[in-house]
Structures are given as C-alpha cells and as structure tokens.
Amino acid sequence: MRPLSDNRYLALVDGAERWIAKLLGVVLLVVMVMATVQLLVQLFWAISTPQTPWLSERLTRVLGDLLNILIAVEVLQNITSYLRKHVVQIELVLITAITAVARKVIVLPPGAESKPQLLAGLGVAVLALAAAYWLVKPGNLRPVPTSTGPARRFLDRDPTQL
User: Fold this and answer.
1) H-helix or E-strand spanning residue 100
2) Per-residue pLDDT, 35
3) Residue 131 and residue 101: Cα distance in Å, rounded?
C-alpha cells in the first residue's frame, strides 16, 4: 500500500468534510421542513378549535417550536457558510447560541423560579454569550487612530484657549 502525500491527504480530508457538511445540510433541511409542516398542522387544529387557551402553555409551546425552527435555520446557515468560505463564523455560532438560550428562557416550565441554580446558570450563559458576541462583533474592533501630523507639546498651546 502506497502512503498518501500530504497534499493528497489534505485534499481527501477536505473533500470528506465538504461531503459531510452537505449531507448534514440536507438532513437538517428535511428536519426543518417536517418541523414547519408539523407546526402549521398544530396551529391549524388549534385555530379551528375555538376553546384553545392561547395564553397558557399552548403559547409557550408554539413559541418554543418557532424558536427551534429558527435555531435550525441558523445552524443551516452555519453549515452553508462553512461550505462557502471554509471557515466557521464565530459570530453566527454565537447568535445561534444566544437564540438557543433565549428559547430556553422563554419556555421555562412552571415552577422554574424555585430552581435558583437553573436561573443563575441561564443568567451566566446569557451574560457570557453577550460578552463574547460584543467582543467578536466587527463594529467593536476599531483600529487605533494613527497620528497624521507632528506631535505638539502642551506648552505650545495658547494659555487663553485652555
């Protein structure tokens, strides 16, 4: 058996990564379509039943399902972004994680307020993800301004203009 050269090996690994990412994207797309169809059917039956209590756990369940589909869309965007640029975009990953934590906060079951460790953990997760997003957001990384002219000494200024 002949050993692979480094370039051929890396090309083989790169090709395998791309095929796996494509397969995961197709699987995720099928799951998203099925979840959306299921959600629409549930909403249709709930709307057709006039006694559906929308301000109880039903609304929380619908919001949770909607956010699950949104999270799946964001994961699909992560996969397609990886296929396009061959890099993992950390900002997109953080947005997906923030959405997942927000979903968890929204669909907290009744009685969750009696679990302080869960609430503290979710709070820490929200703060950590927000801080990480703020750090990697391109708008927050401003270049240090460079000097365009000679430096002036403080004593060169007119004291009446201070």
Assistant:
1) helix 90-106
2) 92
3) 14
Predicted pLDDT of residue 88: 78
- Return all residues near 9 (Cβ < 8 A) that are at least 6 apart: none
Which burial class, exposed, middle or buried, applies to 28 when counting CB atoms under 10 A from its CB (0-12, 13-18, 19+)? middle
Separation CA 51–CA 125 (nearest Å) = 38
* pLDDT at residue 134 greater than cutoff 60: yes
Q: Which of 65, 67, 66, 91 is nearest to 77 (CA)?
A: 91
56: alpha, beta or left? (left if phi > 0; alpha if psi -120 to 50)? beta
Phi–psi pair at 144, nearest 5 degrees: -70, 130
The Cα 57–Cα 36 span in angstroms is 19
Tokens read off for 139: 């708008």
pLDDT digits (tens, 9 = 90+) for 18-57: 899 899 999 999 999 999 999 899 888 877 777 767 666 7
Beta strands in the chain (DSSP E): none
Distance CA 113, CA 80 (A): 39
